[in-house]
Amino acid sequence: MVKVRKYIAVIIALLIVSVTAASVPVNAADNTENAFTQSAGESTQSTVSDTEGVNTEPTSSETTENTEPTSAEPATEVTEPTTEPTTVPAVIPDKIEKIIVGKITDASLTVKWRASKNATEYNVYRAVEQADNKLGKYNLYKTVTDCVLNETGLKQATKYSYKVYACRVSGGYSTQSDCVSISALTKPKAVSAFKVTKKTTDAVKMVWSKNSRASKYAIYRSAEKKDGTYSAYKLYKTLGKAKKEFTDKKLDAGRIYKYKIVVLRIKGALTSQSKGAALKTITHLNAVTDLKSPKQTTSAIKLTWSKVKRADKYQVYRGKKLIKTVKKTAFTDKNLKNGKNYKYSVRAIRMYKGTAKKGVFSKITVPTKVAIYSVAQGLSGTWVEVSISKQMMYMFSNGKVVVSTPVVTGNWGALSTTKGYHRVISRKSPARLRGSYNGSSWDTTVNYWLGFTGDGQGIHDATWRGAFGGTIYQGNGSHGCVNTPLGAMRTIYSKAYIGMPVIVY
Predict the structure, then answer these.
(1) What is the value of pTM for the model shown?
(2) Among 153, 385, 387, 485, which residue has the least CB neighbours within 10 Å?
(3) What superfamily in CATH does domain 194-262+272-282 come from?
(4) Which part of the chain is CATH 2.40.440.10?
């Protein structure tokens, strides 16, 4: 048993010598062999001596047998070297599974994607559509840690393309997945200066400022319904990118229409559109029709007309003065002068946005009835009355005025037309008029002549005069005749007869 213990001690000593020899410096190579031999001998002796001194001989063989296998095995395990790996295998993140474009405006957009397994960040590459409409080169644009890219300050109606890589940066190394890509078009800006420049009863012309990035323009229309509500907007017309005006035709008079215009930008399979620029307008009302005067008296005139579709009320003007606004299609003007012509204008009105939208005027001239001069009371048939103060002549037929015309009577004073009840004593067409008075003479031919006094006074046309009525007779009157416009004289002559009463007052 003593021999066995010595054998184990020698083995341990040799192991110690082996470790010591391995630690000999390289620059001591000349003395290596001697040093190793000496050290080994000394170590062996020392190890053996230490072993014998520390461990006493067992008192029984049973204890020795149990100790013997454990005294050699632990020494081998303690001194056996271990090896650890120097690198860790690289981990590649998964490719992004889903990417979408979120909200888009004319200057911003959002790109979102699903998180990639093992990714620590994401590299975003971007390419932008250029002025020549071609897509530029992809460049590394941003590196982000969130799964979203919020873009601002972008160009309107422009294509932006993105490639996103999932990346992993850890322990001094970096890996990245294959890319996932997506493209988007920013929205075009809405058109500006969208307005109506011209309209009629059945058409509306609208204009706008062009958008340089437009591919097309889409016009939507909504129209007023009978109950005052509006139909839903519907696509009405699509126009080319060069257009900047549109005229909508075949519309209803006095009807309200609403329009929206949208800018469309089309790039390959991508389409985007602007917000709609809107306007609201109303076509002109139709003019009133069938304007007439069914009844007149010496001091009143009644007017009637046909109803205008969508009109709320009607304005009645006498001359240039607004005298009445009515909802009905009739009006009676009162407190007028007898035997005078009155000019009326009537137009339809519709209230829109608090203002009156006005139709075009329809016009009519109507005379009041002439009060029959007292001398003529009871007359029937046809007769003529001449008012010197009014410088008017009226032809009556069965009590109604059939001709009303301004005239010029005899010059104020000695040549005044003779007042009284006369009758036509001569009727001729044409007629030659000759005479003289107070040193002056005349010789002229007229188209129509109706003589009513024995001293040569009569009614005839006076084509040399440029005006009739008023105060012309006070200084530039006739020699006693009743000078009459040619048109009126033609009618009076055609109805006149020998013996027809002519009353001058």
Answers:
(1) 0.60
(2) 153
(3) Immunoglobulins (2.60.40.10)
(4) 374-504
Four-CA torsion 407, 412, 414, 418, nearest 10 degrees = 40
Coil/strand/helix, residue 476: helix
Residue 392's SS3 state is strand
CATH 2.60.40.10 fits 292-367, yes or no: yes
Nearest-angstrom CA–CA distance, 376 and 384: 9
Residues 6+ apart with CB under 8 A from 142: 124, 126, 149
DSSP string, 426-441: EEESSEEEEEEETTEE
- Intervals of CATH 2.60.40.10 along the chain: 99-185, 194-262+272-282, 292-367
User: Quick one: angle between helices 2-22 and 61-79, nearest 10?
Assistant: 10
Termini Cα distance of the chain: 183
Tell me the C-alpha distance between 216 and 243, whole Å: 9
Right CATH number for 99-185 from 2.60.40.10, 3.30.420.40, 3.20.20.70, 3.40.50.1820?
Answer: 2.60.40.10
Can you name the CATH fold of 374-504?
Answer: L,D-transpeptidase catalytic domain-like (2.40.440)
Per-residue pLDDT of the chain (505 residues; tens, 9 = 90+): 444 344 444 444 444 444 333 333 333 333 333 332 333 333 333 333 333 333 333 333 333 333 344 444 444 444 454 555 555 568 999 999 999 999 999 999 999 999 999 999 999 999 999 999 999 999 999 999 999 999 999 999 999 999 999 999 988 889 999 999 999 999 999 999 999 999 999 999 999 999 999 999 999 999 999 999 999 999 999 999 999 999 999 999 999 999 999 999 999 999 999 999 999 999 999 999 999 999 999 899 999 999 999 999 999 999 999 999 999 999 999 999 987 889 999 999 999 988 999 999 999 999 888 778 877 888 889 999 999 999 999 999 988 889 999 999 999 888 999 999 999 999 999 999 998 888 788 899 999 999 999 999 999 999 999 999 999 999 999 999 999 999 999 999 999 999 999 999 9
